[in-house]
Design goal:
The complex is a heterodimer of chains A (192) and B (202).
Chain A (H helix, E strand, L loop, with lengths): L1 H14 L10 H6 L4 H30 L8 H23 L1 H7 L10 H12 L4 H31 L9 H16 L6
Helix pairs in contact in A: 1-7, 3-4, 3-6, 3-7, 4-5, 4-6, 6-7, 7-8
Chain B lengths: L1 H6 L1 H26 L6 H9 L13 H9 L11 H12 L17 E5 L9 H5 L5 E2 L7 E2 L19 E5 L15 H4 L1 H11 L1
Antiparallel strand pairs in B: 1-4, 2-3
Classes of the chains: A mainly alpha (192), B mainly alpha (202).
Chain lengths: 192, 202
């Protein structure tokens, strides 16, 4: 039992990492990873949104759409759920840490369009996860996203002061680094 | 229930979405009221860090307008009374680079207070009108004097005085305010390092 959930977590965090292996959620990955503190703030917000959205989407599907035979409405309902969760998170962040709210700027409402969030919600349905499995899957996806975001931000801070050739400065060397990180994470394939 | 849905699928879909959306809308409305932010919390935090001399050397009419300007993206290096420590604290808070003090707004000086030489004071009240923190005691044709505990050393009273009887005197360190001098920078302290610097310039 515990082993199943651990395997699910390892799978979501490392083996099928949502950013580097499944290539979802690349927009905040490239956009917010300039500074480490911003990346940490963004990853906490996304973790909160992902876990909550994963749980509420599952509940919506299981208790509203399935009994009424309206499975075809799952995409729009999940978008509705995610938008509500993101709005709620935005209000909480604005109240608790105005500085973080200002620094994140437009990327906080853009979590709504983060394909990793909708992807987790839909994958939970595809893989027919139970309630706890959905929760763990969402949480694991968020942890994987946070891990990669923080690692990438740390590297980008160093790349900013490194001796990079002029044509490669900025986003270009960032993309190359992300590609190399993705190659590294492919090494986890077959672990689970 | 199932017959109702299969007979009116369109209505069923719309009502299902409404059933989903209305409680969420209520939740968001409740949250909007509960998590309401008043005023500009970032400008408040910035203002806490500014020295409150209200001197105007930053070209804003006081510390609060400058704090609001910084919240909107103004440079943080315009406050001479705050000096380097204020710039560093602001850079920390806002997560920006700590640039050196902008020289056109003034140099960083030791803290001073104004002192009126009472033998020469003519009681014109021009310095009282200039003082932004109301630290000068006096009335028309009465003696004017500076309340030392209120004076922020902003310098604004020196210009209007027609008999030029106001001096800016440095504050004497007390037992509570004394501290060691800053250490000499590394380039000047280690002889071999300073030789290298001079050799590179030569």
């Amino acid at each position: 039992m515990l082993a199943d959930y651990s395997l699910l977590l390892i799978g979501a965090i490392l083996v099928n990492n949502f950013v580097l292996v499944q290539f979802l959620g690349l927009c905040p990955f490239m956009g917010v990873s300039n500074k480490l503190e911003t990346a940490i703030g963004m990853s906490s917000a996304t973790t909160f949104v992902l876990t909550l959205a994963s749980i509420v989407s599952w509940m919506t599907y299981e208790w509203l759409l399935l009994p009424l035979g309206l499975e075809y409405l799952k995409t729009i309902s999940f978008i509705l759920v995610i938008a509500v969760v993101v709005q709620f998170t935005e209000m909480v962040v604005r109240k608790s840490s105005p500085m973080l709210y200002k620094v994140l700027g437009v990327f906080l409402p853009l979590i709504t369009t983060n394909c990793a969030v909708l992807g987790v919600a839909l994958l939970n349905i595809n893989k027919q996860h139970s309630f706890l499995e959905s929760a763990f899957y969402g949480f694991g996806a968020a942890l994987g996203f946070s891990l990669v975001l923080v690692l990438f931000a740390a590297m980008r801070e160093r790349l900013n002061v490194a001796d990079v050739p002029v044509p490669f400065k900025g986003a270009a060397i960032g993309m190359i680094t992300a590609g190399l990180m993705s190659l590294a994470f492919m090494g986890f394939a077959g672990l689970v | 229930m199932i017959e109702l849905i299969s007979n009116h699928p369109f209505a069923a879909a719309i009502s299902a979405l409404l059933l989903l959306g209305l409680p969420f809308g209520a939740l968001l409305g409740f949250a909007a009221v509960k998590f309401k932010t008043q005023g500009d919390p970032i400008a408040d935090q910035i203002e806490e860090l500014l020295p409150q001399t209200q001197c105007g050397q930053c070209s804003y009419p006081g510390c609060r307008p400058y704090a609001e300007a910084i919240a909107n993206g103004e440079a943080i290096n315009k406050c001479p009374p705050g000096g380097e420590s204020t710039i560093n604290a602001l850079a920390d808070l806002l997560g920006v680079e700590a640039t050196p003090l902008d020289a056109e707004h003034g140099e960083e000086n030791i803290k001073k207070v104004a002192f009126i030489r009472e033998a020469e004071c003519i009681g014109c009240t021009k310095c009282i009108q200039a003082c932004p923190v109301d630290a000068i005691l006096g009335a028309a044709k009465q003696m004017h004097t500076v309340i030392v505990s209120e004076c922020t050393g902003c310098d604004l009273c020196v210009e209007p005085c027609p008999v030029d009887c106001i001096d800016m005197l440095p504050i004497q360190p007390t037992l509570q305010t004394w501290s060691w001098d800053l250490p000499v920078p590394a380039e000047q302290l280690i002889a071999s390092d300073s030789r290298d610097v001079m050799g590179a310039e030569a």
